[in-house]
């Protein structure tokens, strides 16, 4: 059996993307024990860096070991007690994921739904909160299945007005689109590294407001092998690994043992956040907006139709309708084989209907956009689609020229 030798790819789908080389270099650093003073100092630095990423002063800002879904599950199992009502705004596949996880937690789940490719208004959400009076409201900011970006600026205030905790999955949107946790009064927000943060999947940053922290700590139970005999309180959180109360004890000054922190993933998560802080969050968002808009212009320049409400599209993922009669998966496979470029299909009602083209993280750059458009044009021609010669690249270049900074 030979050593691993993965092919070189340009990952221009909805995620994962190519990790920034500075992140992978950081991840090759030497392992250190989980309670070594250098390691705990690095954990503290990581917490502080992610406060910048999330736009928060929340003390409880750290990473959950696992993919972005790990933090989603940790959030819902920790802030929702069995039998409590949870309202979920579903506008795509990942809203349905929140629904499933909340059901598994034992919540009474109520959903409101919008057609895929559209978003909710604040009024629609407030009306549903008034009608159902949930303990928790949950939604996705950017749903990669539909490429939509749900407006959140008024949601946290609405939730607080009605005494409801808010949870937001920002896996696909964070630092590619504006997210202001404190300014928008959001209670719990989580994400992953493999999209706009420019890292690999495997670490899930999360931030928790003081009001959410109080709810979690009201259910505090210490693992039996670590307990001093003090009785726990409230309904015990159903997961040991995803118990945010125990994780806060692990990341906090008590350093109460929990799991063994993945040093390699911690290094990667820290470097992802350090790079964002170095660039500036607003500047990172602007970079994604520039290159995402150039990709969108290029796709239209090829004569393709964009999917969904473009006024509410994420900066970093563009949905494009597959030309009628074209075998979309076959073309994607050819693009991968001939050019080493990966784009995505979608799920559910959009499977085989749209391609999803991502422009995010390390790949939110001019050369990656132009190479993808050139490769896509060549494959469209090979599959018999009539496209304007150079139309995609020219339209993208025009966008760059008109929006030069």
From TrEMBL:
InterPro entries: Aminotrans_V_dom, PyrdxlP-dep_Trfase, PyrdxlP-dep_Trfase_major, PyrdxlP-dep_Trfase_small, SP_NH2Trfase/AEP_transaminase. Its cofactor is pyridoxal 5'-phosphate. It holds the Pfam family Aminotran_5. GO terms for molecular function: alanine-glyoxylate transaminase activity; L-serine-pyruvate transaminase activity. The modification N6-(pyridoxal phosphate)lysine is found at residue 195. Residues 39-344 form the Aminotransferase class V domain. This is (S)-ureidoglycine-glyoxylate aminotransferase. The lineage of its organism: Bacteria, Bacillati, Actinomycetota, Actinomycetes, Propionibacteriales. Keywords: Aminotransferase, Pyridoxal phosphate, Transferase. Belongs to the class-V pyridoxal-phosphate-dependent aminotransferase family. Transmembrane segments: none annotated. Gene3D superfamilies: Aspartate Aminotransferase, domain 1, Type I PLP-dependent aspartate aminotransferase-like (Major domain). Substrate binds at residue 356. GO terms for biological process: glycine biosynthetic process, by transamination of glyoxylate. It comes from Propionibacterium cyclohexanicum. PANTHER family: ALANINE--GLYOXYLATE AMINOTRANSFERASE, AMINOTRANSFERASE CLASS V.
